[in-house]
């Protein structure tokens, strides 16, 4: 890599879909496609991973039941579970979800990570080009 250049890693995730929303679509059909990414300096990736796994072990110990450190990254904390805990969880579940989200944001801030995202709101009956939506979302600054 040329002198003075830094390699950055971008992790992307989506929620919803690019399917066309029809008047006859089920009530629970996604009306949006949300794309989000976190950009991390490659040199900080090991530290971010270590800190993230520590948060998972603290807030979601059942996801990291194995004693092998490589298995600790496999258990996935699902956003839908966090949202469910916030909406209708017990007092401790609400506290846990808020605490986990707070600590994740603090971790990303401490390591200089950048968050990017775009939300596409679909119009009923208007065809969506999911590939174009992804491409534009990634390329647009």
Explain what the structure shows.
With 141 residues, this protein is an alpha+beta fold. It has one domain. The chain has four helices and three strands; from the N terminus they run E-E-H-H-H-E-H. It has helices spanning 45-59, 79-88, 91-110, 130-139; strands spanning 8-16, 32-41, 114-121. A three-stranded antiparallel sheet has the order 1-2-3, with helices on one face. Helix 1 (45-59) runs antiparallel to helix 3. The protein starts with 7 loop residues before the first strand and ends with a helix. The model has no long low-confidence stretch (mean pLDDT 89).
How is this fold's topology laid out?
Elements: E1 8-16, E2 32-41, H1 45-59, H2 79-88, H3 91-110, E3 114-121, H4 130-139
Antiparallel strand pairs: 1-2, 2-3
Helix pairs in contact: 1-3, 2-3
Q: How far apart, in Å, are the first and last alpha carbons?
A: 23 Å
Largest sheet: 3 strands, antiparallel
Order of helices and strands: EEHHHEH
User: How large is the count of helical segments?
Assistant: 4
- Protein structure class: alpha+beta
Shape verdict: flat
Question: What features would you highlight for this structure?
Answer:
141 residues; alpha+beta
């Amino acid at each position: 890599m040329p002198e003075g250049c830094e390699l950055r890693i971008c992790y992307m995730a989506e929620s919803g879909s690019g399917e066309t929303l029809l008047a006859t679509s089920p009530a629970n059909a996604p009306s949006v496609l949300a794309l989000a990414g976190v950009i991390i300096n490659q040199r900080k990736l090991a530290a971010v991973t270590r800190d993230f796994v520590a948060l998972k072990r603290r807030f979601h110990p059942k996801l990291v039941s194995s004693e092998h450190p490589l298995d600790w990254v496999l258990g996935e904390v699902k956003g839908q579970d966090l949202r469910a805990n916030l909406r209708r969880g017990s007092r401790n579940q609400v506290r846990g979800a808020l605490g986990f989200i707070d600590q994740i944001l603090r971790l990303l801030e401490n390591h200089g990570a950048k968050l990017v995202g775009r939300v596409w709101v679909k119009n009923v009956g208007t065809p969506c080009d999911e590939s174009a939506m992804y491409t534009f979302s990634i390329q647009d600054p």
